[in-house]
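REQUEST ID: PR-0412
SUBMITTED BY: lab tech R.K.
PRIORITY: routine
TASK: structure prediction, single protein chain
INPUT:
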Amino acid sequence: MSQPDHSTPPGLNERVIPAVAGALIYGLVIYLLVWFGDKDTLPAISGLILMPMGVASVATILADPRGVGSIWRHVCIGWAVIAVLVVLCMLLFGEGGVCAIMAAPVFMLTSAAGSALATWALRTLHGRRRASLLVLLPLAGLPIEPMLPAPERDGEVTTVMEIAAPPQEVWRHTVEIPHIAPQELKRTFSHDIVGVPRPIDARLQGHGVGAVRHLRWTGGVTFQEVVTRWEENRALSWTFRFGPESIPRAIEAHIKVDSAYLKIADGEYRLEPLPGGRTRLTLSTHYRMATPINAYCDWWGQIFLNDFHGVVLEVIRARAEKGASGVVARTPI
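STATUS: complete
OUTPUT:
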């Protein structure tokens, strides 16, 4: 009777589980080196691009050291590993869900590139020793990151809403917005899908230029708006003031809104009277950023700020129109 051949290497399916485990261990180590802890810079290249490429490359090399499997198969394995890695980082290190969702499109693209590159290297270089150099990609990016150009970019989001109430009524519900009930907030992609905190209230301390609006959002987010322009019933402008604990780490550890790479600078409400006792209310927010991936960050910034503007303006509209209708109802004919 012939003996079983124990020299036969394991097949592709048999290698998947140890490959996934190895890639996850590698990914956790790279995460701790690149992302973990308080950092004053955004590791855009080493963290967003090269880390998922390296993780997917490790999974491909361990699962298919001869490069005989299909690229699509390896891409799917890479995506699965990245998804599990993100969940592990959220569970083990308190990684914020907002950052994970923002990074997801880049992670999917760059991990697919890593899987394809590793498969090509295995087939072309005929062996995994040379292909294994791909695992050094994230580490190679760390010293290069500070030398990459990070041009400054100014951005602004402006949202306009017409309200069936006079400017004085709109102003009353704009300068201070207390006790925002959850049912007053409309559903948005940012708040209901991504999980961005929602506004709770905006309290005014003082009057005129120099007054301070104290804002609270869900999740323990707090910050201030210092009034720089006060034209009653016409305009309200401010600069943002954030403290070290304005955004808790549990909400978002990597997006610092008052840092060298991102600064939410100032904002403004403008009220314009319209015929028929109506008001055009405009909310603008100005910000600056300086990263190697400004266009991508700006895309997300536009989404978040547009959603936040829409939510706040809708609260003001509903309250002002309710107040205006009450005034009309109480006015004798």
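NOTES: The CA atoms of residues 102 and 300 lie 7 Å apart.
REVIEWED BY: pending
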